[in-house]
Amino acid sequence: MDAEAKLTRLKMILHEYTDLANVAMLLNWDMQTYMPVGGSKGRGNQNATINRLAHEKLTAPEVGQLLEDLESYAAGLDPDSDDARLIKVTARLYEKRTKVPGDLVAEFAQVSSEAHPVWEKARREDDFPSFQPYLEKLVDLRRSYAALFAPYDHVYDPLLDDFEPRLKTADVQSIFSALRPQQVELIQSITDRPQVDDSFLHQDYPEQKQWDFGVEVITRFGFDWNRGRQDKSVHPFTSFSNVGDVRITTRFDPKYVGTALFGTMHECGHALYEQGVNPRLDRTTLANGASLGMHESQSRLYENIIGRSLDFWQHFYPRLQEYFPAQLGEIGLEDFYKGINRVEPSLIRVEADEATYNLHIMLRLELEIALMEGSLEVADLPAAWNERMQDYLGVTPPNDALGVLQDVHWSSGMFGYFSTYALGNLIAAQLWERVLEDIPSLPELIRRGEFDALKTWMGDKVHRHGRKFEPQELVERITGSKIDPAPYMRYLQSKYGEIYGL
Questions:
Q1: Can you tell me whether residue 227 is helix, strand or coil?
Q2: Residues 313, 448: Cα–Cα separation, whole Å
Q3: Is the dihedral of CA 229, 201, 343, 443 positive or negative?
Q4: Do residues 266 and 214 make contact, with C-beta atoms less than 8 angstroms apart?
Q5: CB–CB of 338/499 below 8 Å?
Q6: Cα(339)–Cα(493) distance, rounded to whole angstroms?
Q7: Extended strands (E) in 199-354
Q8: Which of 21, 36, 162, 223 has a CA positioned 20 to 30 A from the CA of residue 156?
Q9: Backbone angles phi, psi at 240, to 5 degrees
Q10: Measured between alpha carbons, how far is 7 from 273 in angstroms, rounded to an integer?
């Protein structure tokens, strides 16, 4: 078999692997949207089977032999070609996955599937003890997983690498150490200024009208409804089984318009990324985003840099007033803009303002690291959470539903994910500075409600490449530097300097 035939054979195996992985993703989407509560155990069995089969398909000795045989062939290709990158990315994935027993993959899928509905109920009823044994098992499974990659610089490194390839725990800690004092200083400066009013956001906002306005906005962003849909879930998320099937969810608070408003924009950013991947990469290991940090750069950009901008609302605020005349008819544009950007330490991460948001992430990173190191046990997690909330943000949750139970990630065993939100904020600001250089008219286009130029730019620079390039490499290709906190701080200081008169 010559090299081209071997590459064709590798692709055939990867097609089957990604098909199985995508079926598992659809099962998880259904679990979080429409599955009856009684189906959790059966769904756990299904997820365990599907994930084991996918794992066995990818880690088969034949795959290793094909990758070894294709190494010299890949060296002769254009290093940026789809085939060269496919071989490179698959080889790294194979190297990682072959360290993990299939039984551990299946057990993790089983436990996380059963844990999710327990978490939903525990959150709803403020009952951490009912969720605690599931979380303890997930933490044990993640510790066992990380141990498979020893020796390492830090036990958290293998978990972080799953979401942010080649980034080390020390790298993230270094970035956060540089960022935290600057954000704390900014927050303190804002605290010394008169507070803006956002009371008009906290009143009756009928759910259907919130839904309809959100649909209008993301349609204008470029969300393709022929290749996507939106549903409701306890915690918003995006699910993608192929470039023709990208699903988002949102949630509503009938007493606060911001929950669905910004959550819908956030998930649309994720969806635009997946819908923008080059179809040639579908059913391969290159078909998803470069990393979760890169993914979050898209969601945070559309949610905040655009969705909380004055330019955006100059176009869309009159439409929002038409949807909610009784609530917003007498509220001016400037007051609304300041209200949706009010800075105030709060309990809920997904509704936190941009100035305090990263502190929520830093808190979670510290807790995850402590859990993996074994210096913190799950039974002590609620108290540790509350203590850090007070230290970082000056607020203490009145209950666990508003504290340690608020995020969906741990019920899915997604330890290593949280830092990608903060990294996404940084990357988003870097991309924003660059896109404004390339499209100086973009602010005016946004004021007219026109997003085609932005979507085209993101599609060309970020989306179409899928997973071909590692995150630091992709950021540097686009912006000229690796992930850098400076543009993000410039963005925050400029924005909040104007809002609060700093």
A1: coil
A2: 10
A3: positive
A4: no
A5: yes
A6: 17
A7: 228-232, 238-242, 245-250
A8: 21
A9: -135, 125
A10: 27
Half-sphere exposure of 46 (CA within 13 A, CB side): 14
120, 267, 303, 366: the active-site residue: 267
- Token pair, residue 142, equals 């993640």
Q: What is the pLDDT of residues 430-470, one digit of tens each?
A: 999 999 999 999 999 999 999 999 999 999 999 999 999 99
Burial class (CB in 10 A: 0-12, 13-18, 19+), 375: exposed
On whether the CB atoms of residues 268 and 214 are closer than 8 A, the answer is: no
Would you mind telling me the total number of residues written for the chain in this entry? 502
- Rounded to whole angstroms, the Cα distance separating 160 from 95 reads 16
Tell me what the mean pLDDT of segment 169-184 comes to: 94
The token pair that represents 419 in the structure block: 């830092």
SS3 317: helix
What the block records as the tokens of 263 is: 């959550």
Q: State the helix-helix crossing angle for 3-33 and 40-58, rounded to 10 degrees.
A: 170
How far apart CA 316 and CA 314 sit, in angstroms, is 6
Question: Which DSSP letter does residue 8 get?
Answer: H
pLDDT digits (tens, 9 = 90+) for 390-429: 999 999 999 999 999 999 999 999 999 999 999 999 999 9
Distance, first Cα to last Cα, the chain: 68
* Residue tagged 């044990």 (tokens): 140
* Both tokens assigned to 214: 């959100």
Pick from 404, 358, 347: which is nearest to 379 by CA? 404
> Residue 247: what are its φ and ψ, rounded to 5°?
-115, 135
What per-residue confidence (pLDDT) applies to 1?
A: 85
Which value, to the nearest 10 degrees, does the dihedral of the CA atoms of residues 254, 255, 256, 260 take?
-10
In the annotation, is 274 catalytic?
Answer: no
Counting DSSP H helices and E strands in the chain, the numbers are 21, 3
Burial of 269 (0-12, 13-18, 19+ CB in 10 A): buried
Distance, in Å, from the CA atom of 415 to the CA atom of 439, rounded to the nearest integer, reads 38
Q: Which residue has the tokens 């403020």?
A: 126
Across the range 338-351, mean pLDDT stands at: 95
